[in-house]
Design brief:
This protein has about 280 residues and is α/β, with parallel strands linked by helices. It has one domain: Rossmann fold, CATH 3.40.50. About 45% of the residues lie in helices and about 15% in strands. It has ten helices and seven strands. Helix 5 links the parallel strand 4 and strand 5. Helix 2 packs across helix 9 and helix 5 packs parallel to helix 6. The model has no long low-confidence stretch (mean pLDDT about 95). Bound molecules: NADP nicotinamide-adenine-dinucleotide phosphate. It comes from Exophiala sideris. Pfam families: adh_short_C2.
Length: about 280
């Protein structure tokens, strides 16, 4: 056996994000805040979080900056912005560029949903969901691309990780709280990720999508309760658990680390196999 086959290079640090700079949209709560916490605890030196509400962003960075297990010099910075507006995305990118000359990781995660039966699904809510969940994801990436490519190489690529949803792979919620626009938007953003993976890959930016099932965040909790609650969800899920914050943070840290640098255009379900079980007769 060749020595090179057993002595993997610097394997102890393969999941480390030591010194990396990340931007997290929808970072004030839910997945965004959980992932920002994971980024800092995995070694990031700077995290920018954004969402519309300035107060919520400030509270989030206070909690992040108080984390005992982050690097002592690591910092979370809040830049409140409405990601559904192009001028706000320009401002976000400009304000990020004031305090860093590059970005290594973009977690494009801000998203919204709307539930209504077929007959009552209104055009303005449909457009709002598509705008934030698809168009704004594209333009967030476009506006931050100059910073993302600054230090990127094909061997050490920058990362874009997009929060899609398992509803973009299978069906969304139907009936009284149907989420037609939401599931269509998540299917669209998965396709966007595949196109971006091919277009941005050569310049050292790799793009992947995560597809969570239902998790207990502000967005999903009431919808799950309407469908019977998290205990019913747990019973329907093949691994008999409900997703926890660590399950998302762990996957996004992995997708930001050296361990995943050969994944590009991947679409990763994080649902305990729930979608597979739903498809059975
Ligand atoms: N939870 C689930 O079960 C689940 C499952 C699959 C996919 N997802 C996806 O996961 C992502 C995060 O959702 P979550 O569950 O963590 O929900 P959440 O707790 O409601 O968080 C949503 C975040 O997005 C921000 N946001 C909303 N509209 C925004 C806008 N126009 N501009 C900037 N920020 C905005 C919110 O802050 P402000 O309101 O202050 O702006 C908040 O920080 C979404 O893309 C969602 O579709 C969630």
């Amino acid at each position: 056996m060749a020595a090179a086959d057993v002595h993997l290079m610097d394997f102890q640090n393969i999941f480390s994000l030591e010194g990396k700079v990340a931007v997290v949209t929808g970072g004030s709560r839910g997945f965004g805040l959980q992932v920002a916490s994971g980024f800092l605890q995995a070694g990031c030196s700077k995290i920018y979080i954004t969402s519309r509400e300035a107060k919520a962003c400030e509270e989030a960075i206070d909690a992040l900056n108080a984390l005992p297990s982050k690097r002592p010099d690591a910092k979370a910075i809040a830049i409140p912005a409405d990601c559904s507006t192009i001028s706000e995305l320009d401002r976000l990118a400009a304000e990020v560029a004031e305090t860093t000359d590059h970005v290594d990781i973009l977690f494009a995660n801000a998203g919204a949903t709307w539930g209504a039966p077929f007959e009552k699904t209104a055009p303005d809510t449909f457009s709002k969901v598509m705008d934030l969940n698809v168009k704004s994801v594209f333009y967030t990436i476009q506006k931050l691309e100059p910073l993302l490519k600054k230090n990127a190489t094909n061997d050490d690529p920058s990362r874009v990780i997009v929060t899609a949803s398992i509803t973009g792979v299978g069906l969304g919620t139907l009936g009284q709280n149907a989420t037609f626009a939401y599931s269509a938007s998540k299917a669209a953003v998965i396709h966007l990720v595949k196109n971006l993976a091919v277009d941005l890959g050569p310049r050292g930016i790799i793009t992947n999508a995560i597809c969570p099932g239902f998790f207990p965040t502000k967005m999903a909790s009431s919808l799950v309760e309407m469908q019977g609650g998290f205990e019913v969800l747990r019973q329907e899920t093949p691994n008999r658990r409900v997703g926890q914050p660590e399950d998302i943070a762990g996957m996004v840290v992995f997708l930001s680390s050296r361990a995943s640098r050969h994944l590009n255009g991947a679409v990763i379900a994080i649902d305990g196999g729930h979608i597979l079980n739903k498809g059975k007769l």
